[in-house]
Design a protein that fits this description.
The protein has helices at 3-6, 12-21, 26-39, 51-59. It is mainly α. The chain has one domain (3-59). The model has no long low-confidence stretch (mean pLDDT 81).
């Protein structure tokens, strides 16, 4: 599954539905969000975790 197909993630009920259907995993979600943050200069973050750190959290 590519990041392009994951975004936009939608609202919380949509994300929950995608989790329940198996369409979206926590790891896929953090990868999609991380890619969006990296590719969009309009996002403003004080601090952003590395993709490796996000993957570790998603795997828990």
């Amino acid at each position: 599954m590519t990041t392009q197909k994951l975004l936009p993630l939608g609202d919380i009920p949509s994300v929950l539905q995608r989790y329940a259907s198996g369409e979206l995993s926590p790891t896929q979600m953090v990868e999609a969000i991380h890619a969006d943050i990296q590719n969009n200069p309009d996002h403003i973050w004080i601090s952003a975790l590395s993709l490796e750190s996000l993957r570790a959290y998603a795997a828990k």
